[in-house]
């Protein structure tokens, strides 16, 4: 069974992901400014406006991810283009009967949340196709700056590859601890991963060892 260990990740309060896309501000500004033309019922206008205004922060409330929201540029483009396409189609219609427009906005919103969840999780799962330390570039949904995710893949095809991967993991951990400025961080002793134990080390035992530290 392929296992995945994600390392060196920073937990942060995030506001959204789609707002990091280059066309988000322009597109959602258009959507907000034309909301009053989309419903026969005046009550739909403030509801729809609120949905659009709070889009980013509401997105993160609904993601419920156990990992930081960091998405690759490629996947962000895919999510954004899918959302813009649905929104543009909705805005191409004339005025809708009462309740229809905000309900459609909610449906697009839920689809967007699902797409972002899948995009972030799929990138993490892809790590299992690698052997050892692997890094991929992302965008942090916290502040839309460039970031990266470092993870450890267990998909090694031989004992030699596995031993090299574990040694690379130990080197990464030691380097990460040395770079840390926290005085309370003490480098752990991974005796279960040291050379005398590598010969009979299984994936399950390695995972248990790492999780204990």
UniProtKB/TrEMBL annotation:
<dbReference type="GO" id="GO:0005634">
    <property type="term" value="C:nucleus"/>
</dbReference>
<keyword id="KW-0732">Signal</keyword>
<dbReference type="InterPro" id="IPR052868">
    <property type="entry name" value="Izumo_fusion"/>
</dbReference>
<protein>
    <submittedName>
        <fullName>IZUMO family member 4</fullName>
    </submittedName>
</protein>
<comment type="similarity">
    <text>Belongs to the Izumo family.</text>
</comment>
<dbReference type="InterPro" id="IPR029389">
    <property type="entry name" value="IZUMO"/>
</dbReference>
<feature type="signal peptide">
    <location>
        <begin position="1"/>
        <end position="16"/>
    </location>
</feature>
<dbReference type="Pfam" id="PF15005">
    <property type="entry name" value="IZUMO"/>
</dbReference>
């Amino acid at each position: 069974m392929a296992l995945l260990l994600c390392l060196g990740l920073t937990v942060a309060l995030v506001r959204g992901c789609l707002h990091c896309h280059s066309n988000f501000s322009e597109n959602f500004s258009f959507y907000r400014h034309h909301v009053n033309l989309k419903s026969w019922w005046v009550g739909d206008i403030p509801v729809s406006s609120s949905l659009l205004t709070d889009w980013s922060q509401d997105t993160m409330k609904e993601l419920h991810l156990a990992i930081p929201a960091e998405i690759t540029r490629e996947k962000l483009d895919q999510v954004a283009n899918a959302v813009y396409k649905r929104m543009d189609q909705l805005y191409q219609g004339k005025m809708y009967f009462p309740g229809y427009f905000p309900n459609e906005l909610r449906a697009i919103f839920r689809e967007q949340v699902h797409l972002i969840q899948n995009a972030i999780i799929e990138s993490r799962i892809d790590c299992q196709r690698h052997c050892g330390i692997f890094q991929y570039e992302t965008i942090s949904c916290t502040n839309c700056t460039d970031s990266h995710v470092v993870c450890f893949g267990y998909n090694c095809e031989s004992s030699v590859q596995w031993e090299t991967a574990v040694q690379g993991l130990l080197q990464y951990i030691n380097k990460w601890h040395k770079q840390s400025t926290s005085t309370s961080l003490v480098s752990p002793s991974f005796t279960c991963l040291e050379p005398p134990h590598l010969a009979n080390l299984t994936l399950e035992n390695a995972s248990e060892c790492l999780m204990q530290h």
